[in-house]
Amino acid sequence: MSSLTIRLTKERITAENKRVINNDRTVDCNQLVPIKYRWAWNYYLDGCANHWMPTEVSMQRDIEQWKTPNAFTDDERHVVKRVLGFFATAESLVGNNLVLAVYRCVDNPECRQYLLRQAFEEAIHIHAFQYIVQSLSLDEGEMFNMYREVEAIYNKDEYAMSCTDSVLDPNLNTKTKEGLQTLLKNMVGLYVITEGIFFYGGFVTMLSFGRQNRIPGTCEQIQYILRDESIHMNFGIELINAIRDENPWVWEKDFEQEIIEFIKNAVELEYKYCEECLPHGILGLNTNLLREYIQYLADRRFERLRLTKQYGSSNPFPWMSEVIDLKKEKNFFETRVTEYQTGGALEW
Ligand code: MN
Ligand code: FE
CA-to-CA distance for 15 and 37, rounded, in angstroms? Predict the structure, then answer.
């Protein structure tokens, strides 16, 4: 495990000696340069270039629409609340896992630089949902307790966090096979399952409202969050693969099978959540299409993790990839056109 101790040495730190984790015998965690993992630094720069703040997005039209009695059907109001209720606490769960569990174990400075940036982005996302709930005058008690009170949401959160406690254990030793597998499984739970699967039922549903120019301020924020989350997940998968490459002994066949099952069960939980959110279907969405979409996403995640695709489903919502790739000046929600990009090109 990393420590803050600086050791007095005559030899300078070289990039070759750096590792993603378990650096204690080679280098300390305070020295960013020389950078070895250029990809981690680049993710940090990409995150900074995408900076945004929730309160810069106007909620005026959302407030007017939400107050209009006939502007939404009961089913539509139900799904909006379920999605916001899930995100209201999920972003906090992610932030806590990141700062308390992942950060502690990943002691490479350039990876930590990205983790610090990601942690701030999670704070912005937490802020965004607080801002949306407050703007729409939703019942705060209902929204922020939903992860305790709605079984389909509880099951997702509980599942993704199931291996976090063992990473928080001060006796965890990531130099052992069991210890490192515990860490990797928690990272899959955070980056692949929570950020890469559990967020997408909500993303696709909310952005379907946005495509009709409904609750446009909420959808604009969801769009920025989706953009941030894609980078989080891509960084996380790169981190998992880098740990695996540096510690090939950890990736045994039965561990690989365990990871595949871990992700496949998450797909089922996300499907159950979608059933809870959309019992009757709305806006051209129904649970069959959502299942296909979640399976399609899971296959993409499997490929990135160098695992075999499990489903072979196609993408029923090709417009979602356009949303992910859109720059703000092409925003089809016709909200205030803003370009927060402060430098560098957005390509990921
Ligand atoms: Mn987030
Ligand atoms: Fe995230």
Answer: 9
Instruction: Give me ligand 2 centre to Cα 69, in Å.
Output: 34
> What is the DSSP secondary structure assignment for residue 217, as one 8-state letter?
H
Q: Phi first, then psi: give them for residue 163, nearest 5 degrees.
A: -110, 15
- Distance from Cα 94 to the centre of ligand 1, integer Å: 7
Total-model pTM: 0.92
Total domains, the chain: 1
Q: Which of 186, 208, 6 is CA-nearest to residue 100? A: 186
Q: Closest-lying ligand to the alpha carbon of 126?
A: 1
End-to-end CA distance of the chain: 32
> Which structure tokens are listed for 106?
């990943």
**pLDDT per position as a tens digit, 251-292:** 999 999 999 999 999 999 999 999 999 989 888 899 999 999
Decide if 343 is inside a domain.
no
- State the CATH number of the domain containing residue 309: 1.10.620.20
Which residues span the domain enclosing 190? 38-333
